[in-house]
Automatic annotation (TrEMBL), chain A:
Segments traversing the membrane: 51-73, 93-116, 168-188, 194-211
Record's subcellular location: Cell membrane
Protein name: ABC transporter ATP-binding protein
UniProt domain ABC transporter: residue ranges: 370-606
Organism, as annotated: Sporosarcina aquimarina
Gene3D superfamilies: ABC transporter type 1, transmembrane domain, P-loop containing nucleotide triphosphate hydrolases
Stored CDD domains: ABC_6TM_Tm288_like, ABCC_Glucan_exporter_like
Domain ABC transmembrane type-1 positions: 53-337
Alphabetical keyword list: ATP-binding, Membrane, Nucleotide-binding, Transmembrane, Transmembrane helix
Length: 609, 592
């Protein structure tokens, strides 16, 4: 018990003094970001603005009706109950009922439409973010944890969703009520109103003090959620390895650490933001005291400016004044955390898309002539140097090129450059004589099929997975492709054949079978350029031999780049390129290279050992 | 029971919760006392013309305002602590539970859904606790207090207010139940959204190379649209609460007014009493309107709790891992035998392995071959009990693996999976997975054996180079070698290599096998390559989940047509080229 009572004050602070010191500068940036984030959301509301105005009109009506009700009840008491008059009472009550029904109706419809507006906006935001992600370069994804990005799509956007759902109406109706009450107060007694307004600057100072902290804290909180999500996603995706290495304990500890960081930031965010309504309450109470105390003293002065009646009524209004103020303060928190989320979302929206300077001038039919001219490329050239160093090669239309070399020699990088996943740092890649960066990506990729080292299958049916190569493929085409890739046999043995659903874990089919499916996918795609990166590495050699003929047929008439370690696959290539640490050291066909007695020859010898 | 399991995690925070509630009550009472004090100022101060009384009560009011502030601020600390710690404990419990799932149980939950449960669902439960500590008590207090006060003023009139209340409760109950169903489907939709994003991120290269960005966009739009529709449906349903509530309460108020005239005229009530009751009715309405918030929060929390309880209460088939429980401290010898082992995946009835039997002596090296999908990887996964055999027995050092403590069993095994899985962190950290206590030189020795040491040394930060998620910044071969090194770090009694050299060039691979020669561990190597198999003591040939042959290369060449076929698929061309030389190397290899 004792520990739990001390603990709330024992959390390690998140915000350091320096954060607040440089606060003024940081603050400015943040305000800029806020405005941008809010503006961006406002843009998404877009064509729903008409509806939004309707909602605002309804809020106005329901606010008026809400005020009208009590007023009319007062009248009813004065006009009917006190004189004990029953005639006309029915009409009066009927009228009141109508007003209340009106209140309920307007309230329902304003919320009904607002939910629609909010969720449409959120939907657009999500879809927009997702579509933007599709345009980002591969290097963007290399640097980030999946779970962290997922968190932006869900947790951060959820914050925005909640704010739009409820805060918008709340804020508007609070402002209305606030304005109305203030007007009445001014009418009753400008002097007392002025006195009550003493709290306003105090309020602003307090709010500034709090929001400077919560602004930072909410951001930290969303970041902590993102990091935690990243860790969860990675652990759960790699659960098999966690088990095989009995690392459950370690994962638990690491999880506890991140989870605790989230607890800490969230604790401070909640605590500080929890201050706002409390401070409001206190100011409200203080205003009360000022009205009663100072007002009372003023009455005593007897100059008639303030009377007892004024104080009584005024106190009531001062109470009414603070309710919307309190609501506003509470909403302020929701809005703050939504802004923290929005900033994270829009920071991704601000990431540069894959550069595509070329205009999409119709469909160019590629022939498939690929040339590298002194190409150098590094994933982080400044620190790690070049992965591909001054490579020149020329593969002509319809030829097959094999890339060979030790692991890490840069083979995969070369084919990834052809697919233009990355931009070269030096030199040029020409496709059909056109520099690759002058070729629209759509043109290039729509005529390229890439079979990747790690086959990826979606959580969908086998059929859908093959169809991914060509979305318009008929079932017959899919089956034909599967037959060519030697996948048909095992697929037909599955419980539901081509309609068998694959799970994310994919344990029901083997790695080799996954490769067969991804080869079938390439068959369906019918590309001009074929990039095979270890496409058959997990397939047994008997099956490989069987699909070899089919693969050769596939490569016929297409320019193909093949990466394989089994020399059998490589031998028939028109040109074999041998790479070593990013440099091209040998090239030629099988006979040339054997004659050269260079590295290839050595490799051939070794493979027989 | 409603959220019972989930909220049992709030128990340790009983005291912070109670303190927070008390502080909230103090705040509330200050609010209620203020009007009384104003009355005092008016009656005893202004009317009596007493300056001092005005100043006194004015100061008391100020003082109380400060008391309220202090208790409010303190409440923030306790409420935040209770809510966050509750959420933390809940997350912790969920994560622990997931870690203890057997693979079979684990696969019942899609990855994306586990992620949602660990984050979004926890937040929902946490929200209701936090809200509860700030307004939950307030709403019923206001409603009950006002009702009681109204009854005290005039029972007859106040009873009209009660007419609506049963309807209200039934209505709120129905809405809460509907809310739970609706919000549960919202959370399920969120799972789908998560799944599509996760797939999209994992398959980024595939999607780009097939130019499927737009298609993926439309796929995502679909799930996001479902989420939108269900969210709208749920919230629109919930938005009914407030208007209906107001209508019922205001209707009751009309009854008070309608019958009020009669009651006043018979002298059973005073006009002032009606005014008071009308005032209380306003307060009751105000109190009830807080309920609409609470019901939304409650429904969401309840829906999420059910989802979390699915995980928390999944009792079937948990892995019991007791660290440090070692039955016999001696090092395992690594003798392994399979006796009539059959297996099928829980979700699929077709058997993957049937009646597999074989034995491996300690220190023996076995190669496993077979067609794609013949059950090789599955067989390896049964040894560290990633999956449990459906029937039959697997013995390690003569004892059924089910009888070994799991921790001890797995610590004796080094598994190198087919698809290298690395984690975000440095290379050193990834290697230390094998054995967290391994010294630097041990890590380096393992890396050296796995032929990755020199590559690592070429990396900019050596062993401290950071690996991206799933090792994106490494080449396929580097990932495979790191994952082999990770297994070697354990110094396992049994080393399982699941076709883990497919991305290695021949030279590196040969060097690797050479280095592994000295390992004392029993080795099971899945391979496609005959020449790798030749280096093994015996070869196990699987065909459609059954043992087709088991013996040395020569025996198999003689006995198994299937094996010959595999051998031919790799040898014929080379033999055709320079057959003589090859015969020599064949002999050389088998001499080992």
């Amino acid at each position: 018990m004792e520990k739990n009572i001390r603990k709330p004050f024992g959390y390690e602070p998140i915000i350091k003094r320096e954060d607040l010191k440089k606060g003024s500068k940081r603050k400015k940036e943040e305000v800029g970001d806020w405005k941008k984030a809010l503006l961006n959301i406002w843009r998404l509301v877009d064509e729903q603005r008409g509806l939004l105005i309707t909602v605002l009109a309804l809020v106005l009506i329901s606010s008026i009706l809400t005020l009208l009700g009590p007023f009319l009840i007062g009248k009813t008491i004065d006009n009917f109950i006190i004189p004990m008059k029953t005639e006309g009472l029915a009409t009066q009550i009927g009228f009141l009922l109508a007003i209340y029904a009106g209140t309920s109706l307007t309230m329902y419809f304003q919320n009904f439409w607002m939910v629609g507006i909010a969720q449409n906006t959120v939907y657009k935001l999500r879809a927009g973010l997702f579509n933007h992600l599709q345009k980002l370069p591969v290097s963007f994804f290399d640097k980030r944890q999946h779970g962290e990005l997922m968190s932006r799509m869900t947790n951060d956007i959820e914050n925005i969703s909640q704010t739009l759902n409820s805060s918008f109406i709340q804020v508007f109706s609070s402002i209305l009520t606030l304005g109305g009450t203030l007007a009445v107060m001014l009418y009753l007694s400008p002097l007392l109103t002025a006195l009550t307004m003493i709290i306003v600057p105090v309020m602003f100072i307090a709010m500034r003090w709090i929001t400077r902290r919560t602004g930072i804290l909410f951001k930290e909180q969303q970041r902590a959620i993102g990091e935690l999500n990243g860790m969860i996603e990675e652990t759960i995706s790699g659960q098999r390895i966690v088990k095989a290495f009995s690392q459950e304990q370690r994962m638990k500890e690491e999880f506890a650490e991140r989870s605790d960081k989230l607890r800490r930031t969230a604790f401070w965010a909640l605590t500080y933001s929890g201050f706002i309504p409390k401070v409001m309450n206190m100011l409200n109470n203080a205003a009360f005291a000022i009205v009663a105390g100072v007002g009372g003293l003023l009455v005593l002065r007897g100059d008639g400016i303030v009377t007892i009646g004024t104080i009584v009524v005024f106190a009531e209004y001062a109470r009414q004044f603070t309710r919307p103020l309190n609501d506003l303060a509470n909403q302020f928190n929701t809005v703050l955390s939504a802004i923290a989320g929005a900033e994270r979302v829009f920071s991704i929206m601000g990431e540069d898309e894959e550069r595509d300077t070329a205009e999409n001038n119709g469909d160019i039919q590629l022939k498939g002539d690929v040339e590298f001219r002194n190409v150098s490329f590094g994933y982080a050239p400044d620190t790690d140097g070049y992965t591909i160093d001054d490579v020149s090669l020329h593969v002509r239309e319809g030829e097959t090129a094999a890339l060979l070399g030790a692991t890490g020699a840069g083979k995969t990088t070369i084919v990834q450059l052809i697919a233009r996943f990355y931009e070269v740092d030096k030199g040029k890649i020409l496709i059909d004589g056109i520099p690759i960066d002058e070729l629209p990506r759509t043109t290039l990729r729509s005529q390229t099929a890439f079979v990747l080292q790690d086959p990826f299958l979606f959580e969908a049916s086998v059929k859908e997975n093959i169809r991914y190569g060509k979305l318009t493929a008929t079932d017959e085409e899919i089956e034909a492709a599967a037959k060519k890739a030697n996948a048909h046999e095992f697929i037909s043995k599955l419980e539901e054949g081509y309609d068998t659903m694959l799970t994310a874990d994919g344990s029901e089919i083997s790695q080799g079978q996954k490769q067969l499916i991804s080869i079938a996918r390439a068959f369906v795609a019918d590309p001009v350029l074929l990039l095979l990166d270890e496409a058959t590495s997990s397939i047994d050699t008997v099956t490989e031999l069987e699909i070899q003929a089919a693969l050769e047929k596939l490569m016929e008439g297409r320019t193909s780049f093949v990466i394989a370690h089994r020399l059998n696959t490589v031998k028939k290539a028109d040109t074999i390129y041998v790479l070593d640490q990013g440099k091209l050291i040998e090239s030629g066909n099988q006979t040339d290279l054997i004659a050269q007695k260079g590295i290839y020859y050595n490799m051939l010898q070794q493979s027989k050992l | 029971m409603l959220m019972k399991t989930v909220f049992s995690y709030a128990k340790p925070y009983k005291w912070p919760i109670i303190i927070a509630l008390i502080l909230m009550l103090i705040e509330l009472s200050v609010e209620l006392i203020q009007p009384l004090l104003i009355a005092k100022i008016i009656d005893d101060g202004i009317t009596a013309g007493d300056r001092d009384t005005i100043i006194l009560y004015g100061s008391i009011m100020m003082g109380l305002a400060i008391v309220a502030l202090v208790s409010g601020v303190t409440n923030s600390f306790f409420a935040a602590h209770a809510a966050q710690s509750f959420g933390y404990d809940l997350r912790q419990a969920l994560f622990r539970q997931i870690q203890s799932f057997s693979m079979a149980t684990f696969l019942r939950f899609p990855t994306s859904s586990l992620i949602t449960r660990l984050t979004s669902d926890v937040t929902m439960a946490q929200n209701i606790l936090f809200m509860g500590l700030r307004i939950l008590l307030r709403a019923p207090l206001v409603v009950i207090g006002s009702l009681v006060m109204a009854m005290l003023v005039n029972v007859k009139l106040a009873s009209f207010l009660l007419i609506g209340i049963p309807f209200l409760f039934i209505f709120l109950f129905v809405m809460a139940r509907k809310g739970v169903t609706y919000f549960a489907s919202v959370q399920r939709r969120l799972d789908r959204v998560n799944r599509v994003i996760q797939e999209n991120l994992q398959a980024v290269r595939l999607i780009k190379s097939y130019l499927r960005g737009v298609y993926e966009g439309s796929r995502f739009s679909k799930v996001a649209d479902h989420l939108r529709k269900d969210t709208v449906k749920a919230f629109r349903m919930m938005e009914l609460i407030m208007p209906v509530l107001l209508l019922i309460m205001n209707g009751s108020l009309m009854l008070v007014l309608w019958f009020g005239v009669g009651v006043v005229s018979t002298g059973d009530a005073q006009v002032g009493e009606i005014v008071a009751i009308v005032n209380y009715a306003f307060r009751i309405t105000g109190g009830f309107s807080m309920f609409s918030f609470l019901i939304v929060a409650f429904s969401r929390a309840q829906a999420s709790s059910v989802r979390m309880e699915d995980v928390l209460l999944a009792e079937d088939d948990r892995e019991v891992i007791e660290p440090g429980v070692v039955e016999n401290g001696e090092e395992k010898r690594g003798a392994l035998s399979f006796i009539n082992v059959s297996f099928h995946y829980p979700s699929h009835p077709e058997s993957v392995l049937s009646n597999v039997s074989f034995t491996i002596d300690p220190g023996e090296k076995i190669a496993v071959m077979g067609a794609t999908g013949s059950g090789k990887s599955t067989m390896l996964n049964l040894i560290p009990r990633i999956f449990t055999a459906t029937s039959g027995e697997i013995l390690l050092d003569g004892k059924n693996i089910n009888d070994w403590p799991l921790e001890e069993l797995r610590s004796a095994i080094g598994l190198v999976p087919q698809q290298s899985v690395l984690f975000t962190g440095t290379i050193r950290e990834n290697l230390a997975w094998g054995d967290p206590e391994a010294r630097v030189d041990e890590l380096e020795a393992a890396a050296e054996k796995a032929q990755i040491h020199s590559s690592i040394q070429r990396f900019p930060a050596n062993y401290d180079t950071r690996v991206g998620q799933k090792g994106v910044n490494l080449s396929g071969g580097q990932k495979q070698r790191l994952s082999i090194a990770r297994a070697l770090v354990r110094k396992p009694a049994i080393l399982l290599l699941d076709d883990s050299t497919s991305a290695l060039d021949v030279k590196t691979e040969n060097a690797l096998w050479e280095a592994l020669e000295d390992e004392r561990s029993t080795m099971i190597v899945i391979t496609q390559k005959i020449h790798t198999a030749q280096g093994a003591d015996r070869i196990l040939l699987l065909d459609e989940g059954e043992v087709a042959a088991y013996g040395t290369h020569e025996e198999l060449m003689e006995l198994s047509a299937l094996y010959r076929k595999i051998a031919e698929s790799q040898l014929d061309e080379e033999v055709a080229e320079d057959g003589k030389e090859h015969q020599e190397t064949l002999r050389l290899r088998t001499d080992h």
